[in-house]
Every structure is written in structure tokens, then in C-alpha cells.
Amino acid sequence: KSALGLWSWAIPANSAASDAAWAFISWITSPEIDAERVAKGGAVVRESSLTNEKVLKDGYGEDYYRVVGEILSDAAPLTQGKGGEEMIQAVGTELNDAAAGNKSVADALRDAQAAVERIQK
Asked: Which one of 9, 34, 41, 84 has the minimum C-beta count within 10 Å?
């Protein structure tokens, strides 16, 4: 399985402008606007953008988006539930430290595991 991270749009329960926020979210995630954003190099967030003619022509090319589609077809979230985003951040920080040479891979993995266990408590 491929690891899948994600970005989410949300409207706070106490928002004074929830209708405006929903209008923006609806607009930014609409098929037309998403395709325009992806064609300019943005991340794919709608499956329909993977086969959109504008995206294929102006974006990274048909082969790129075909492979992205294949990856996403077998992807699963890296983690879900309470503390999920915090775990992703902690693991990412540790892996980044290893990649940057700030610590060994073994130390980064040990520290990532410890962070995840601490977050899950």
C-alpha cells in the first residue's frame, strides 16, 4: 500500500461566516477550479482532475497523472483517528532529521516510534 496524507477544509463550529466559508470551499474544490489549479502544478485532490484535458495538456503530462492515479488507487491513509495529524507530523519530523543527516536512520525510527506511542496514550 502507498501511504496517503491529506489536507482538509473545515469550518469552525463558532464561525461567524460559515456560509461564506462553505461557498469558498465549494468553489475551490469544484471540478473546474481544481483542474485549473492542478494544471498550474497544484496537487491533485479530485479524481476527475486526473483525466481532465486541460490538466493533461497544461500540467505535468498524461503519463504523470496516469501514474498518480495508479498510486492513489492503492493508497491508504498513513494514520487516522485521534492524534492522526500529530503522528504524521512527528514521524515526518524524525524522517526529515534522518534525511538531513541530523541523526541516524535507526535513531529517527526509534524516536518516531516513541513519539507515536506517546501521542496514542
From this structure: 41
